[in-house]
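G., before I forget:
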Amino acid sequence: MRNTPTRRPTMRDVADRAGVSFKTVSRVVNEEGSVSPDLVERVGAAIRDLGYRPDGRARHLRQGASTGAIGFILVDVANPFFSSILRGIEEVARGHDTLVLAGSTDGLTDRQDQLVDAFVSRRVDGLIVVPSGSSVGALKTELERGTPIVFLDLEPEELVVDLVRSDHLGGARMATQHLLDHGHSDIAFIGDDPTIFSAGCRLDGFLAAMDAAGIDVPPHRIITGRHSSDTWRTIVADHLGAPNPPTAIFTAQNFITVGATHALHDLGLHQRIAQVGFDDIELADIVEPAITVVPQQPRELGRRAAEQLFRRIGGERDEPIRDIVESPIIVRGSGEIRPPSGRSGSNAATGRTRAARARSRG
Amino acid sequence: MRNTPTRRPTMRDVADRAGVSFKTVSRVVNEEGSVSPDLVERVGAAIRDLGYRPDGRARHLRQGASTGAIGFILVDVANPFFSSILRGIEEVARGHDTLVLAGSTDGLTDRQDQLVDAFVSRRVDGLIVVPSGSSVGALKTELERGTPIVFLDLEPEELVVDLVRSDHLGGARMATQHLLDHGHSDIAFIGDDPTIFSAGCRLDGFLAAMDAAGIDVPPHRIITGRHSSDTWRTIVADHLGAPNPPTAIFTAQNFITVGATHALHDLGLHQRIAQVGFDDIELADIVEPAITVVPQQPRELGRRAAEQLFRRIGGERDEPIRDIVESPIIVRGSGEIRPPSGRSGSNAATGRTRAARARSRG
DNA sequence: GTGGATCTTGACAACGTTGTCAACCCCGCG
DNA sequence: CGCGGGGTTGACAACGTTGTCAAGATCCAC
């Protein structure tokens, strides 16, 4: 059953069997026409008999020929956010008869450089990259050489490049506004380390919405850092368990949302404190209350990045684009909890409106 | 900023610049030694100046050379089960300096054949395949030719091949036994269409455990089919809402577990009816009660499949293996709910022990 | 000084394909 | 009957690399 690998048949083998020159085989394989019907048939039979498959490497060896493969460098395929992006890329690539090579960096810059090297040495037609860290490393050389590269989610510093990402700022503003609209004014922001670009945008969006509503956010209501879901669970529980907790929380990343939801349940506050999350979570609708979120649309991100990449591969030389993908809020319940009536619309606990501050100043 | 793609420098370009023959460049690139130090330096400088990167396709063009790439054919990368497998494969591949090409079939046989073709024409060193349907199609030719192929999750009919999969039967038996151990005897099996191999195994495991406990399972307690999570929600709600519901359910697939959990919550029975699921679910621990499951270990499946594949690529010619991966049960709460005391240990509602049946017969 | 061994270097043929060009065949027309 | 033209076919050179082998250069020993 398990056969020892035999030498793969080549065009020459097919040609010998069909009694023609190997160039004729090439013509038949590529359906160039100009071959007499009986030869087409004889060659076709020989191809079937030998199980011949053309060698793509040799085919594309000539300078400038497409390899029909693109590379996707991401942080971790096991993370559904990235694997959904990959799926979107694949869908577009399929339409261009192109395969996708994917590699995870785990956020390590040198691993990213290794992947760039591996992809480039295979002469992929282009790259889609979710950068790990702000360093561009090996990517810069390739950009300068003219290799089509589209950046996803994060943009490298000091380089003007094609970029596709979610509207972190707008989404965060929308999430915050949603809580404001439901009567909250004392809202805690719980997010990732704001030196991470997307996390910084989300904090800015939160602050912008609060500012527009004339609400001053006290510093202790802004909680940021890099932690695991479990650590966030403790941190959020501590914050909510302290005196004068906020009436609502905006959890600006999926791990944080999970940790915070645990914390709310731990404290029995899940029906009392409102929550809106950034990033959708599988099963967010199974929890009680189901979690209101501003999702990202990873598959759409992947599709758009791939479309832009194929435009570049196709030879388009326009100015670099920035494609910012917006997402509508998904209302599920947790974000529509209203604050206790005594505090509704006021800033009793900690927040003060700018008007109030102005009064006390003046 | 965006440069027009320039011709990629080749060994000859490097050679011209360094004033040596291109063969010497080849020797420097491959660190063959036997090159005088000053030439090594001159060539190295030329390589850096030109940004030269060897062309992997040309390098591996010779018959028998490895391409340093393997193909992974799966159903859908966006499904975390498959993307975790991919991650496991990638981890092993990384250790072999190999890249992974992945393609989704969406369960379509012709898409699978297209992918096989695309991978083979790129001369991947081997394939890992989660077959779509039972048809082998284009895979058979490759197997006969000796291409290393490892099958994952599902094995093709009538072929003896390397196979890595979860222990569906053992896992289902364990899940059922867990419910039996907690005093249940009236347990409903809710699973995928049993003509799907893995689903059939799980049903067999359920029946085996029930049989070993001497319990006769009435036919209406076995609910199977191919449905979406939402449809399952309705189906399960109907079953549990009818008179004499079971005291426990075994939901034998992740979509079904999600649908059933919804149904339990819809009916307010989530604290009264026990549930054990097959396949782990993200956030299964956030629901109340958290869901007890027998997980699969997709990353481990991927790792083992890749390890076997690299053994084959390395030239191993032993008999095909079957690597059945077991998983321990994850106890979280939903599976430890005990039946109402009046029914504990009895078969009052629908099930009857074999002993009881024997008595009424004799 | 000469012979041989060793070390360095380069010329050239693979590898499997496609592009280019020339040769050939057959036909119809002058 | 000869000539031109279209349609087939094949020889050969790329493509960018590695493997093979031979040509020089260098060095040591006799």
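The longest strand of chain A covers residues 69-74. Residues 10-12, 22-23, 26, 29-30, 54-62, 65 of chain A lie near DNA strand C (CB under 10 Å from a C1').

More on Monday.
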